[in-house]
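Structure tokens
________________
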Amino acid sequence: MRENKNQIRKSKRSVDEKILKFSAIGLSILAVIVFAFFIYSQNINKNTQEDLLNTEEIASILDNSKDFEDLGDTEKTSSSIGKTVEESQNNTVRDNTTINNNLITPTTKAVENSINKTTKTTSNKTNNTSDNEEIKEKDISEKKDKTEETSSASELSFQKPVEGDIVRDFSKDSLVYSETLKEWVTHLGIDIKADKTTVVKSAEAGKVKTIKNDPRFGITVVIEHSNGFETVYSNLLTSEFVVEGENVEKGQSIGTVGNTAIFEIADEPHLHFEILKDSVQVDPNLYLK
């Protein structure tokens, strides 16, 4: 019995000791939490006071600024009393000059920046206007050159190499049907209807560049003219009237109409006639008189 009682007492003491230990630990943790909360609250109060101080300082600065402006107005008003109109005007001009020289407000700076930007914009517009004028002058110059070329071509005054109707027109950007080839093709000259052996004449004065038997357009004579022009006479029966390198006059006989063009052999007799400007075929109808 005594032993049981001793054991019970020992177990109670052990439990009490454990309770005390846990209580001490809990109190320690609680103390730490309270201390941390206290420090945090102090920091918050400090920051709040600093913010309030900054706000009060700003308000004080603004009030001082207003007081300064009011003081300036009051001084101006008091200095104007008892003076003549002319003296007041002089003092006002002098005061404004002093303020403008000594006080540069943000508004003044903004105005200056705006003026500078406006000046730069005006300068840029002036430069753009100058560039546009140069472009216009260039366009005018190019148009003038083209006009001079057209004028020169008009001075050449090409004539039809043979009299007759045009049975197939110039067609560079669209296709025409070829009876010989049985397909749609471009046509870089005009076909002038004429009987065989009809005399072909030079459309303008120039120099015989080549005489050849072209595999597509038969016997062909090419004559060089001024200003980069050339005339081509194809589907000829003969070209024995001229030789290469010979200078020919306008209207001079250079050959006769034939039927030697393989690419147009199914067509009725005609002269295939081309005009080239700077080695590029152009519409002969634009130049023939």
About this structure: The longest helix spans residues 2-80.
